[in-house]
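RECORD TYPE: inverse folding
INPUT: structure tokens
STRUCTURE:
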């Protein structure tokens, strides 16, 4: 087992991928421009939160199977797992993909396998990545095996799903698909399916677009129900009793580097043919404003709001594209005092002050729950009643269990009842 693998990008996907190949016995070099990430990995430590990852990284670094560097080295397999952010106009920023691809040119040898795991717009392999190698003198049809294998994992379960989930491997050529698929078959217990690069690109985008559109439908239902006085969550629960219906749950918006970004990659390439996808994005992007407008119904300007949760989903530390960040900024701009509390987020990740649980709720007139962390599911109701100015909870994630009848609780089942709350709730 003397295959060497070079993984470019030691983020939420790259580092777990590198660690799992190293755990399987391969020599793995992780490459990142973030010096802090490189130094931590070489000490057997991690710079991000993911279940089980610290233990695996520590093990494979100690056995010498995983090391990190700022520059690539000659390898048999190169896996590119760098971010693909979006520009302000919602088009894909492929700078990191291009830079990572160009960085391995001096280390490429004939017969190498090059796999792009980063999520990319359709035709990126054909129109952007392959030409970089061709301009450098490589014949991508026979000298190299170039492929796209998008990740499809859930944060919090990445180490499990990288192994157990089906992988889609799209090759620039059929031979490239085969050789790239063989790399994953060395660690993946799920099915590894070979296809064309453009098909793999689109399949990944459609997986997340499906979920984004589904959430948009539920978020739109929330707005309709708010106007008509309907219990949104009850409607969804009952509708999902139909054997062929699976409505997702509404929320404060859609975040993360997948659902909030990937649909734009399709729209970018076919804007006139994708009105449904475009409108779903608009609906989900409108939810932070929906939340802020409802906060205004229960709390007067200048009052303090305790914001619980800044990450885009529960029990992780990822704030990328999180609607909570937009909501906090909007509340501050509207003149509210904000006590932002998230036990999974460090101060360096945000631009506003973080608070402890006690600091956040003290003299607050509303707890606004924006993330479904486990820590929020059962709150200390006695401390809420004791320290808050008015014990009110607005739970946009439907995750908090409230037993104290003196605490006013709102979620998407009863947001339509908020009007007039400021008159009804008397501060202590």
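DESIGNED SEQUENCE:
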């Amino acid at each position: 087992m003397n295959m060497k693998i070079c993984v470019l990008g030691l983020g939420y996907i790259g580092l777990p991928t590198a660690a799992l190949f190293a755990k399987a016995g391969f020599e793995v070099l992780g490459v990142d421009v973030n010096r802090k990430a490189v130094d931590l990995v070489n000490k057997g430590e991690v710079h991000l939160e993911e279940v089980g990852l610290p233990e695996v990284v520590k093990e494979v670094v100690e056995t010498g199977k995983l090391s990190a560097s700022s520059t690539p080295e000659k390898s048999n397999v190169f896996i590119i797992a760098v971010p693909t952010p979006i520009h302000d106009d919602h088009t894909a920023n492929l700078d990191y993909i291009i830079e990572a691809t160009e960085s391995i040119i001096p280390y490429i040898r004939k017969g190498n396998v090059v796999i792009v795991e980063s999520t990319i717009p359709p035709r990126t392999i054909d129109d952007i990545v392959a030409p970089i190698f061709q301009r450098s003198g490589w014949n991508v049809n026979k000298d190299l095996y170039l492929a796209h294998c998008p990740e499809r994992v859930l944060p919090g379960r990445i180490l499990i799903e990288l192994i157990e989930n089906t992988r889609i491997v799209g090759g620039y050529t059929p031979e490239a698909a085969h050789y790239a698929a063989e790399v994953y078959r060395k660690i993946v217990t799920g099915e590894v399916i070979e296809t064309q690069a453009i098909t793999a690109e689109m399949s990944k985008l459609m997986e997340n677009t499906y979920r984004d559109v589904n959430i948009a439908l539920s978020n739109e239902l929330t707005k309709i129900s708010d106007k008509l006085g309907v219990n949104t969550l009850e409607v969804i629960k009952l509708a999902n009793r139909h054997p062929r219906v699976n409505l997702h749950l509404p929320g404060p918006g859609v975040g993360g580097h997948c659902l909030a970004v990937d649909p734009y990659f399709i729209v970018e390439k076919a804007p006139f043919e994708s009105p449904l996808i475009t409108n779903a994005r608009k609906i989900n992007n409108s939810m932070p404003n929906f939340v802020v407008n409802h906060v205004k119904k229960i709390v007067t300007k200048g009052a303090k709001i305790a914001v619980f949760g800044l990450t885009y989903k529960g029990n992780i530390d990822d704030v990328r594209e999180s609607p909570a960040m937009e909501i906090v900024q909007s509340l501050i701009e509207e003149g509210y005092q904000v006590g932002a509390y998230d036990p999974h987020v460090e101060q360096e990740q945000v631009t506003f002050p973080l608070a402890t649980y006690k600091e956040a709720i003290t003299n607050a007139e509303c707890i606004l729950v924006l993330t479904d962390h486990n820590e929020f599911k059962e709150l200390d109701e006695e401390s809420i009643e004791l320290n808050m100015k008015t014990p009110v909870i607005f739970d946009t994630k439907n995750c908090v269990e409230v037993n104290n009848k003196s605490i006013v609780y709102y979620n998407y089942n009863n947001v339509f009842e908020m009007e007039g709350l400021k008159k009804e709730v008397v501060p202590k």
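NOTES: The chain has two domains: 4-190, 284-424.
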